[in-house]
Write a structure and sequence with these properties.
The complex is a heterodimer of chains A (62) and B (479).
Chain A (H helix, E strand, L loop, with lengths): L2 H17 L8 H19 L16
Chain B lengths: L6 E2 L9 H10 L4 H19 L2 E4 L1 H16 L11 E5 L27 H8 L3 E6 L19 E2 L2 E5 L5 H8 L5 E6 L5 H7 L2 E4 L19 E6 L2 H11 L30 E4 L9 H13 L4 E3 L4 H26 L6 H11 L3 H21 L5 E5 L12 E4 L2 E4 H4 L5 H4 L5 E6 L7 E7 L4 H13 L11 E2 L4
Classes of the chains: A mainly alpha (62), B alpha+beta (479).
């Protein structure tokens, strides 16, 4: 197991406790896989520079 | 026990379109009760093989059919969908049955106390709801597989996926059980099964059709829409369902804009381009072949690139997994063992994505919307594949896109996600290929221009390029 995977497993354990989700040890590997995919997607989006005043898509109307 | 490979010859009535049924009922050449009884019999015969339905509302349907016939006999208007049987993805409420959304957990929910708004509107036009349809669990799916109910099966090859998550909708319409069905599309769940099952589907503009009375998945991306075997039927159903509803805050207050009468205007004068770049990468030869056929039929010579489409797909992915996780967090805490593990593990991972990534995805969404809308200054329609390939085998976990082995489940929607991400209307058209399975093409228009997407789809259908192919046999039990 790589250090990155170990770090992610530590993160999963801590976040699951924070969220109140009980994780069976057999679920850890698929959760890590999906988390890695989602984080890869998230980083791709984060890497796109947007101005500070960029508005999010949903706009609340009072 | 029925054999999943049994079949019988088709009767012409099996493949009748909604418009034809309604015209016959309105003219007194057919009775709604006979049409409905025939549909229920087809479902009884074929559903053991197709597994499209999870509930059949036979008593309700027959009572409604009797009422339609009585109204006509009394000289009352019975509507433009009079006597047309339709079925409903089981995340839209049907009064009297629980809205499962493909889950085990929702089986504990009480029966819905009222129909969803779209079901009410179709029935107000004379259509007859015959049941609820199988789907991927909580709509987080592109395969049509379901751990609890079993997979919906593709009528063109029972060993293959329907696509999802509206898998039962695809199977029921392509298999001739009903001419019309409702589905939902968050990232491609109408367009993917329409492609793999070889039928037409309409994903309207985000906010066009009300979702009131449906089980949500990702409220900022969820759309509802119809499936049919002809463009005319899509337009008929869509026109009957338009109009605002206060129960859905995302549904805009906008007058109904009927499309049926505009279909014959065709594609003449429209500026049509083919999406290149991202929408060529990963495409199997059959997807490119379908695109070539459609492009040739429309004399398309222009290829354009949707800017940052890969990033748009990534942002849709992030919003989906995090909003979906937020929706299901209480169930992930309390009943994790009752989920399909494929869904549960994705949702748990989604709950763990840091919030700044989600905020950035929503900001990028607006940037991407503005960038793509600028393209519509120069074109009226953009063509793109619906799926990278024809229907994979049920149970197939991976496929190779651009030389990389990837999971099938999240990647069947690579070409649909960047489009629904910004709510563009799409008519998904089926393209039969010689000797092979059908595959779909997206006809994409600017926001609120469903009429243009449907006009182009109608042109392709009239030219014989887009067509819902009839499966070789009507499925039936061997007794």
């Amino acid at each position: 197991m790589t250090q990155a995977e170990t770090d992610l497993d530590t993160y999963i354990g801590a976040t699951a406790a924070l969220l109140g989700i009980q994780i069976d040890p057999s679920w850890l590997e698929p959760i890590r896989f999906h988390l890695e995919v989602s984080l890869r997607m998230a980083r791709l989006v984060e890497a796109f520079a947007l101005p500070d005043n960029a508005e999010p898509a949903p706009v609340f109307t009072a | 026990m029925s054999s999943p490979t049994a079949s019988r010859d088709w009767h012409e009535a099996d493949w009748r379109d909604a418009g034809g049924i309604a015209a016959a009922v309105n003219a007194g050449r057919a009775r709604a009760v006979d049409v409905t009884a025939a549909a229920l019999e087809r479902i009884r015969q074929a559903n053991p093989a197709l597994n499209a339905f999870t509930a059949v509302t036979a008593d309700r349907a027959m009572a409604r059919a009797v009422a339609v016939d009585a109204m006509r006999a009394a000289g009352q208007r019975v509507g433009r969908l009079a006597g047309v049987p339709f079925a409903v993805k089981n995340l839209i409420d049907i009064e009297g049955i629980s809205t499962l959304a493909g889950s085990r957990i929702n089986r504990d929910h009480p029966p819905a106390s009222a129909d969803g708004v779209l079901v009410k509107r179709l029935e107000a036009a004379g259509a007859i709801c015959v049941g609820a349809l199988n789907m991927g669990e909580y709509a987080y799916d592109f395969t049509g597989e379901n751990l609890h109910d079993g997979p919906s099966r593709n009528p063109h090859d029972l060993a293959r996926m329907t696509g999802g998550s509206s898998g039962g909708s695809g199977s029921a319409v392509a298999g001739g059980l009903v001419p019309l069905a409702l589905g939902s599309d968050t990232n491609g769940s109408i367009r993917v099964p329409a492609s793999l099952c070889g039928i037409f589907g309409l994903k309207p503009t985000f906010g066009r059709l009300p979702r009131t009375g449906s089980f949500p998945f990702v409220s900022s991306l969820d759309h509802l829409g119809p499936f049919a075997r002809s463009v005319r039927d899509l337009a008929l159903a869509y026109d009957a369902m338009q109009g605002p509803d206060a129960g859905d805050p995302a549904c805009v207050v906008r007058k109904s804009e009927p499309t049926l009468g505009k279909l014959v205007a065709g594609a003449g004068g429209l500026r049509i381009a083919r999406a290149g770049g991202y929408f060529r990468q990963g495409a199997f030869p059959e997807a490119l072949q379908a695109m070539d056929k459609v492009s040739a039929a429309l004399s398309v010579a222009t290829e354009i690139e949707l800017p940052e489409a890969a990033r748009a797909r990534a942002a849709a992915y992030v919003i989906t997994t995090t909003e979906g996780a937020a929706l299901h967090l209480p169930r992930l805490r309390e009943r994790p063992g009752d989920f399909d593990p494929d869904v549960r593990d994705r949702l748990i991972a989604g709950a763990m994505i840091p919030a700044p990534f989600v905020a950035q995805a929503q900001k990028f969404r607006r940037w991407y919307r503005d960038a793509v809308l600028r393209l519509f200054n120069d074109v009226d329609v953009i063509l793109a594949p619906s799926t990278p390939c024809t229907a994979p085998r049920i149970g197939q976990k991976t496929f190779v896109l651009d030389g990389v082995e990837l999971p099938v489940r999240p990647n069947l929607g690579i070409y649909t996600q960047p489009i629904s991400f910004i709510g563009l209307p799409v008519a998904a058209v089926p393209v039969p290929l010689p000797g092979g399975l059908p595959i779909g093409v997206q006809v994409i228009a600017a926001p609120w221009r469903e009429d243009i997407a449907l006009r182009v789809a109608y042109t392709l259908e009239a030219a014989g390029v887009a067509r819902a192919p009839r499966p070789a046999n009507m499925f039936a039990p061997t007794g």
